[in-house]
Structures are given as structure tokens and as C-alpha cells.
Amino acid sequence: MAAGKGEKGSAVVGKGEKGSVAAGKGEKGPTVAEKGKGVAEEAGKEVADGDMITLKSWDGKPFKVSKEAAARLSKHLAEKIAGGCSDGGIELENIGPEALEKVVDYCNKHDPYAAASSSRRSFYTAPSKELEEWDRKLVDRLSQDALFDLVEAADSLKMDGLLDVTCRKLADMMKGKTTAQIRETFNIENDFTKEQEEEIRREHAWAFKI
Question: Domain SKP1 component POZ: where (predicted)?
């Protein structure tokens, strides 16, 4: 399945699938998946199955990942690949090895091309129940510091899917907690005086009743 050159944000569904999808000029534009595919086309070639690139953490540790998955799941990596910056490895100076390992795990798991037995390729659009469960387990077993590092890595790499997963985990950690408990959980220093806190509570009393 391929979008022709010159077309913006269009996709054609093959025979056997339900109907066809086309992004018109008035719609919001291409999805992350379509942008990833467009990057490969703009580079002047299709990325072959099994083609790998190397990502390097801030300490120089190398991690191999599918070029196709990287381009499709990370806008930042897609830009690097399109610019021909992936041949010697992509250095990620603000991402540590532990966080980058989780990024690669996420890419490998979400890569639709992992099913080598499938003869027809279709780009990933939304996580299945199995993927959602895998995502949940990925963040559930992280320490708080490791979770923060992964949030920053997902944000830096412009990985919308991974950023959503990690931020939902943070939201769950804050759910049902008071302001003081949230500060304690995340080691946030309270820079308000007692008088300022009381004023805020008076001005926004409705919020504290929720």
C-alpha cells in the first residue's frame, strides 16, 4: 500500500478490506504512520524489510532498531532518516541507555512488519488490546525516575504513542491524591506561602470540591 508522489496524506485500502480511505485537502492531514511512510518515499527509496539503523544513547551505547518502525513511530527519527543522517548511527545525547532500550522495545513491539508471514503490509493505526496490555506492563515495572526519563525520551523523539502511554501512567499516579501527596510522590518543592495557598483555595474553591 503506497501513497503516490505529489499526493498529501492519502491512503488506499487494498481489496479484501472494507472500503477505501482518502484524506481530502480539508482534513487534518497525515497521521504519524503516513508521515513515516512519506519519509521513506521522500528519501527516494522504500525501506526494505529487516533494514536496521543504530541509535546511540548519551554514553555512546548502540541500539539496533528497524528503520521502518523508527520512521513511522518517531517524527524526530523520521526527519533524521529523511535527511540521510542515519547511515553512521543517530546520536541521542539527551537520552540515557535505560530509556533508549525501552524506546527500542516499544518500536519493536509496535512494528507491524514483525509479522513476517503477512504478505500484505498495512500501516499501524491504533493499538490492539494485546498491545495496550503490553504498553501498560512496560510502564508499570518502571521506577519513578525511569518513568520520568522515558517521558522525556518520548517527548524528545516526538513519539506520540509512547508519550501518551507514559503520561497516562503519571496521571494514574496522581489520581485521588491531595496536592500535598502529589508533591511528596514526585518530590516537588512547595514554593507557596501558607497565605498564598489559602488565597488560591478561596479563589478556586470549586476545584477542591471535585
Answer: 51-110
Pairing of strands 62-66, 90-91: unpaired
Of 31-40, 59-68, 121-130, 133-142, the least confident: 31-40
Query: Mean per-residue pLDDT for 15-34?
Result: 46
Q: What is the DSSP string of 58-96?
A: TT--EEEEEHHHHHHH-HHHHHHHHTT--TT-EE-TT--
Residue range 11-28: mean pLDDT, rounded = 42
Q: Which CATH superfamily is domain 52-119+126-175 in?
A: Potassium Channel Kv1.1; Chain A (3.30.710.10)
Mean pLDDT in residue range 25-52: 50
For 107-130, what is the mean pLDDT? 59
Give me the amino acid identity at 143.
S
Helices (H) and strands (E) in the chain, counts: 9, 3
Domain locations along the chain: 52-119+126-175
List, in order, residues 6 or more apart from 127 with CB less than 8 Å away: 110, 135, 161
- In the chain, the largest separation of any two C-alpha atoms, in whole Å, equals 67
Q: Please tell me whether residue 116 adopts helix, strand or coil conformation.
A: coil
Using the predicted structure, report yes or no on whether residue 116 has a pLDDT greater than 70. Answer: no
